[in-house]
């Protein structure tokens, strides 16, 4: 800790991170051990976070992330969208296909930013807010591939055809190395197959967006 930082705020944020990393919650004792502070400090931290609905405690006394975090999370999408738009515009114009940024929303893939090319005679209509299961479509499959990739290598791009719309093909690559953001960048086009150069170009765009979000 430095003179410019708040120890209490730091501990509170560490509590939220610890709770976010568990599905079954943590007890006061467990949090006390992980933080290296006494139980009284943990009680005070939890009481403050509960007042803001950032933490809730179940009947067994285990602390979990509260619904207030969702309200904060809704503000993340506009910030992520703004950071991604330059790379998406470049991708859409270069490929001549609709480009999109997709983030995980529960068990779904949610398109949070979409850019359509300006010079094509026709292209796939794809709107922000469109959602689909993670295991269907290039955007969701790219995200799942990143989850399954080991430290031995980095995930590449994913190609699909006709999974979300008849006659449409997609290519997507996951965002890699962005803390707290799980998503992908991709394009969708009316074609029987994705041209060879599209996959690597999508991969480059995903790296550009990841760099903008770091």
UniProtKB/TrEMBL annotation:
IclR-ED domain location: 68-214
UniProt keyword annotations, A-Z: DNA-binding, Transcription, Transcription regulation
Single GO BP term: negative regulation of DNA-templated transcription
Gene Ontology MF terms: DNA binding; DNA-binding transcription factor activity
SMART domains the record matches: HTH_ICLR
One Pfam entry name: HTH_IclR
UniProt domain HTH iclR-type: residue ranges: 6-67
Statement: the UniProt record of this protein carries the keyword Transcription regulation: yes
Descriptive protein name: Helix-turn-helix domain-containing protein
Organism: Streptomyces anulatus (Streptomyces chrysomallus)
């Amino acid at each position: 800790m430095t003179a410019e930082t708040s120890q209490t705020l730091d501990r509170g944020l560490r509590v939220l991170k610890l709770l976010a990393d568990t599905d079954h919650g943590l007890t006061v004792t467990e949090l006390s051990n992980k933080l290296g502070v006494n139980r009284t400090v943990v009680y005070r931290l939890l009481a403050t976070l509960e007042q803001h609905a950032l933490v809730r405690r179940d009947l067994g006394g285990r602390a979990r992330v509260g619904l207030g975090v969702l309200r904060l999370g809704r503000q993340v999408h506009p910030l992520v969208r703004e950071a991604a738009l330059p790379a998406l515009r470049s991708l859409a114009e270069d490929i001549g296909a609709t480009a999109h940024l997709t983030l995980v929303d529960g068990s779904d893939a949610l398109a949070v930013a979409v850019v359509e090319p300006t010079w094509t005679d026709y292209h796939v209509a794809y709107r922000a807010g469109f959602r689909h299961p993670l295991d269907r479509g290039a955007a969701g499959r790219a995200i799942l591939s990143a989850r399954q990739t080991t430290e031995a290598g980095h995930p590449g791009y994913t190609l699909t055809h006709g999974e979300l719309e008849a006659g449409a093909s997609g290519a997507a690559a996951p965002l890699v190395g962005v803390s707290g953001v799980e998503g992908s960048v991709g394009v969708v086009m009316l074609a029987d197959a994705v041209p060879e150069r599209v996959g690597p170009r999508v991969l480059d765009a995903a790296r550009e967006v990841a760099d903008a979000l770091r």
